[in-house]
Amino acid sequence: MASIQVDIGSIIEQIRESIVVIRDEHKAQKEKEEQSRLVVYYALSIHPALEWMHPPSKEMGDLDWYQELRKEKALSWSLFGNVGKNEHFKRLALLGETGTRARIMLLLLWVIGHRLPKDKIGQLLSTAVGDALSRDRVGTSLDHVQELGSVNKAMKELVRMIQTKLPLPPQRNPFYGDDYEPADEGKSLPRDELWAYQLPAENYYEFDVQTNPSVLLRRHEQRVLIPQTKLSLLAIQWCTKNFGLGKKVLGTSEVDLTQFWNADPPLEPTSSSAPLPSSY
Known about the structure:
42% of the residues lie in helices and 4% in strands. It has eight helices and four strands. The protein has a four-stranded parallel beta sheet.
C-alpha cells in the first residue's frame, strides 16, 4: 500500500497565510467602522442647532450643560463623570473642538430620544446626521459616506446607547428624578392651559416628541410649538433649560422670531396641581 506524503511545512505556511489574510480583513473592517463613527461624530459637530445654543437665562435654568460640556475637563467632573466612561464619549474626548461640539449634540439627542421607540431613535439620529451633512460645504463627509457605503453600524451603536439609562445623578437626570413618572409621560396636556391655541392654526405646531422628535432640532420661525404630552414638555424643558436651545414663551408678546423656536409651556404648577418635572 502506497504511503501518503504530507507536506507539514506547506500546510503550516498556508495556515499562517490564511491567518494573516483574516487579520488584515479584520483590521480593515475595524478601520472602516472607525471611519464611519468619525463621519457621524463630524456630522453631529456641525449640526445647525449648535449655532443657536446659548447660556440659559436665570429664569430658564440653574445649570448650563452647553457651557459645562465645553470645558476641557467636563467629563471628569462629578456630574458628567459617568458620561465620560461611555465609549463614544471617550472617543470624542480625543477629537478636540469637533469632539466637544459632537458630545454636546450627542447628549442632547440622548435626552430627546431616550424614551422613544427604537425606530424613532433611528429616525432622530439619521435626520440629525442628514441635516448636518447637507450643510457641509466642504463635502468631505458626503464623500466618506459614499466611499464607506453607509454608516449604519455606527448609527445602530448610537441607537443602542440612547436606549440605555442616561449616566447622570438622579437629581440631574430628566428621566429618573423623584418627580418623573413613566406612566404619565404619554398623558395629554390640558388644552386650556396652552395659550398658543388662541393663535391662527398656521401660527402654531402641535408637537409630539413620540411622533416627530426632530422638530426640536430644526428652526421654526413663524410657528409656536405646543407640547401635546408630558414627555414632549419634558423634551422642551431640557432643551431650553440645559442647552439654551429655543425659548419658552407665555404669551404673544414674548414670541421672539430670532430664536431657534418658541414653545408654549403650561403655567407653573401650584400646590393644588399635579407636579411637573423638577427641571421645569
